[in-house]
Amino acid sequence: MRAVLLLIRFLTIATITVSIGLCNGNLAGPCKEGEKQALLTFKQHLKDPANRLSSWVGEEDSNCCNWTGVVCDNLTGHVLELHLGNSNSLLNSTLPWGVRYLNLSKAGFEGIIPHQLGNLTSLRYLCLGDYKYNLKVENFQWVSGLSHLEHLDMSSADLSKASDWLQVTNMLPSLKELHLFGCGLYHIPPLPSINFNSLAILDLSANVFTSSMPKWVFSLRNLVSLSLNNCGFQGPIVNLGKYRGE
Predict the structure, then answer these.
(1) To which CATH superfamily is domain 110-246 assigned?
(2) Which residues form the Leucine-rich repeat-containing N-terminal plant-type domain (predicted)?
């Protein structure tokens, strides 16, 4: 996970916005030397079997603003965006006051997700999905500081040790989408109160729960999509209208 730590440090220094999908660089520049060296160091800890980052070279006349996947400010030369991964970008604009969109799915990282991600307090969108258990989470306390988070996707990360996953996500006031497909979850801890006031999409499919389905799920008034395929819940499905007061 050293690559992720390096990325977090760079995000803090250069306030870049990270999204998915490699694209051509722009013609801004020249880029800042410190940011260029940070990118080169970051590259050393990435897996790039397709050699997509072949333009990321350290020659003196190499302008990092023209590197594949790097977008710079046309006036200042500061790096604003990094496009990494395998799918199309969902980002339309940059936000200079802080990173709001961070999508690192399929980026090849391994190990424990660093708690320093919780320092990116402006995040609205965080995707660390599709790692097939190569990423692990020991607790969710670092998520608790992301009070603006609207979309959280950690599908296929190993959350089996994160016993506080529900308590923490329940306290995120802006959360609209929670995707935890195939995360090795096996326990639904009790909730003293339900705060999922904005939650519209909940995916707990392909986990290994052994309890009955929690009744609070059916009291979520803004819920429009609920995915529970092969999640292990036992017992009958209760009357949804009963718990919504319909």
Answers:
(1) Ribonuclease Inhibitor (3.80.10.10)
(2) 34-73
